[in-house]
Amino acid sequence: MTAPTPSEKALVPFVSVENMMRLVHQVGIERLLVELTDVIEEDFRRWPLFDKTPRVASHSRDGVIELMPTSDGEIYAFKYVNGHPKNMGQGLQTVTAFGLLAEVSTGYPVLLTEMTLLTALRTAATSAMVARKLAPSGSTTMAMIGNGAQAEFQALAMKSVLGVSRLRLFDIDRRASEKTKRNLDGFCFEIEICNSAQSAIEGAQIITTCTADKQFATILTDNMVGSGVHINAIGGDCPGKTELHPDILRRSKTFVEYPPQTWIEGEIQQMEKDYPVTEIWQVLSGQAEGRTSSTQITLFDSVGFAIEDFSALRYVKNRIRGTNLFQEIDLIADPDEPRDLFGMLERAKS
Amino acid sequence: MTAPTPSEKALVPFVSVENMMRLVHQVGIERLLVELTDVIEEDFRRWPLFDKTPRVASHSRDGVIELMPTSDGEIYAFKYVNGHPKNMGQGLQTVTAFGLLAEVSTGYPVLLTEMTLLTALRTAATSAMVARKLAPSGSTTMAMIGNGAQAEFQALAMKSVLGVSRLRLFDIDRRASEKTKRNLDGFCFEIEICNSAQSAIEGAQIITTCTADKQFATILTDNMVGSGVHINAIGGDCPGKTELHPDILRRSKTFVEYPPQTWIEGEIQQMEKDYPVTEIWQVLSGQAEGRTSSTQITLFDSVGFAIEDFSALRYVKNRIRGTNLFQEIDLIADPDEPRDLFGMLERAKS
């Protein structure tokens, strides 16, 4: 039984996990993080163009499945992503993801790709994009509190984009810090594993918090944080999950991706509704001020937004052009005559 | 460069357009439509269990891209579907679709499949499920007004599920009717191509309207429709797109899938808000009356709902088990140690 060969439009390039890993190694992870940071910044600078539909979440006892769509009027993107804290106990990923790009003018998909790795990359690139703008100039030392799946990506993005060279690691599970240190061997960091969060942040210009507990936690208290630092808070990213004591927020100038989403998911869910936040796209496009003094604490309350996925998908689509880093999958039915779907089906019989 | 072999959970079965066509032919289209009708009815009977999130639509000048998610608490499904009326002019499909099933407990995808063909099949099966309940008993003749991509699927579902054997076709483009007649050669229908909608409905117990114009149109006027018939109105399915004169609705008992969606997209968008509608799941589960007299006009104001896609995806997942009608695609990153995503990436280098 042979079917008619599908036309070009019916075949959608698919980037598997294996091919995504090949892409990272072919480009080089540090170069890729720099390029991705620039692509995300490009899209943040044209922020008002984007359709900012809220994500659609389906919550269950064990976790959440979300669809995150956006569009710039020419390209449509969405990401499927789950969050299941208990998965780790079964040897599964807490967060897995895949994504799709489509042409707005026809609705035809033009890219399907794994996004578990790509999300880790874009999250780190977004942190680096913001830190490049807000961190004290000449930052070289980063404290990383929480050394899970994001840790190495964060470290490499801060290195390649900002020149961070010293890491001070802390995790309540020391093996996580050891894993991170081991994985970063060969990337020319000076790395110290610390016994407490307090100790980790000593001498750091950038503090990255990235823990996984799904609850209100206090990873940092106010007395621990000195003036002039940049806090990159990426672990507090859903309702009921925060990492910072509210007093730190009271002392900081806080930057967010998309306020309606961050008020629900970010650190600022703990604050009064009149707490001031600055949209990071406005800083990047010159419409708002970033850091205004060297003693100011800047805080990026990051939750992850659909436009970052859009940028990452757009980057992958351009980067795989002319390579063999994708397969074509026959996803779209494509009859010779559009009204004759049944005829296509019948002709496939013979 | 070789990557570690992904584990079972990381591989997602993918049903291509070609494999979907093979599945239809292996099962036999009429048998498949009967089985699918029963699976959809099973899910409609347990309707209150489902999460009925509204679809998320991204509108543009040329069309719409929608994500339609639902879940029964154990399985999560969503469909990506576009609607671009101008596509036909470029030789493209107006509507293309694909869908995904995932486990609610882990968020891991378990099926990815084309859904352009599958949507045509589930739409026809849903019409047949409703007609089996509401059409006059012993219905043998169906008028079909609008003979586009859905026509043959509707005809075969009504034949296999209800025993319809006579078709009276009308389309403003006679070639569409000729295409439908030709495609249905060999399926043992008695088919007549008619010169008007009026003529097509003569002697029909079931009237299916399925035209594609994206505007308020009047395919049927009140004086044309006799008592006792069942109207299967599937073309009026988005804001501003209707097919029936309001006076027909005033004389009919109207059945809908999900009222909040049908009020926006269906024929009833023309009616006053106190116009009474009956939810079809309540009829199927014995909680509401269907047809109450042989002279009553019953009207199924169909717009298509996510639960029908859920049922269709569930059916395909079961039906491909043990066959070679799918490929496995490496969609989900699966490190040996969940927190060690970066380690997986690095090990793939060697």
TrEMBL record, chains A, B:
<protein>
    <submittedName>
        <fullName>Ornithine cyclodeaminase</fullName>
    </submittedName>
</protein>
<dbReference type="Pfam" id="PF02423">
    <property type="entry name" value="OCD_Mu_crystall"/>
</dbReference>
<comment type="similarity">
    <text>Belongs to the ornithine cyclodeaminase/mu-crystallin family.</text>
</comment>
<dbReference type="InterPro" id="IPR003462">
    <property type="entry name" value="ODC_Mu_crystall"/>
</dbReference>
<keyword id="KW-0520">NAD</keyword>
<dbReference type="InterPro" id="IPR023401">
    <property type="entry name" value="ODC_N"/>
</dbReference>
<dbReference type="InterPro" id="IPR036291">
    <property type="entry name" value="NAD(P)-bd_dom_sf"/>
</dbReference>
